[in-house]
Design brief:
276 residues, alpha/beta, TIM Barrel, eight-stranded parallel beta barrel, two-stranded antiparallel ribbon, 9 helices, 37% helix
Amino acid sequence: MPRPIITAALTGPVATKADNAGMPGSVAEIAADAKACYDAGAAVIHIHLRDDQGNMTADLDVAKRTVEAVREVCPGITQLSTGGLAFTYEQRMALVEARPAMATLNPCTMTFGPAEFQNPPEKMMKLAARMIELGVKPEVEIYDTGHLDMMLYLVHKGLLVEPLQVSFVMGVRGGMRGDPQLLSWLVRELPEGTSWQVIAVAKANLPMTTIGLAMGGNARTGMEDTLTLEKGVPAESNLQLVERLVGIAHSMQLEPATVPEVIDRLKLHPELVSGA
């Protein structure tokens, strides 16, 4: 069984420093958190952008500066989010021009809590094609079972290149709930050789992430997914959450995958990975 890829999701599309002071709120703070989480065992660094005033942004210049800042301090694999609820799809599409090693691809529009997460099919397919042109590896985010069918259609159309990297997002209101039986079915439907992880939010975070590891998947943690260690106990930092997840992996006698292992397994473009 391949060693698990640990991802640190440092920021998110909803919470900010106002919700937890330990969340990074600038390009420099994101880079510092990336280094700390990489040193603790996270090979992949997942980022929703923040400008230097702490605001959420889809500014391409900020994206380029963030990718470069992370690459300067550590060889962790930078994965930019092309999600976000406050920006146009065109703004989100442009972020791959910062040429991170990886970026998210969301196959379908959906209800996201009180909001709508828009991913228009035609534009989404253009984004998938552009990612192939740039050599940016998609992290396909599956929020519901129908999204998996759309992903397989993209493979059929040549808009996703195997091996795939897939995230099953569980616990978002409007998407699928954190259910081990549902996760088992989803994993069975994946093409052979697919790398996958559970992204579980709020109360689903710790149990579903642990179950995913036990099933042979990868794992993600960080302040995008949970702001607490347990009910009523705020997390102090992304580092603290990564250290906990690595400890869970070690308790299962699992050693986190290294960056070179991830590059080889996912067939990442070597020019887009720091230290490759």
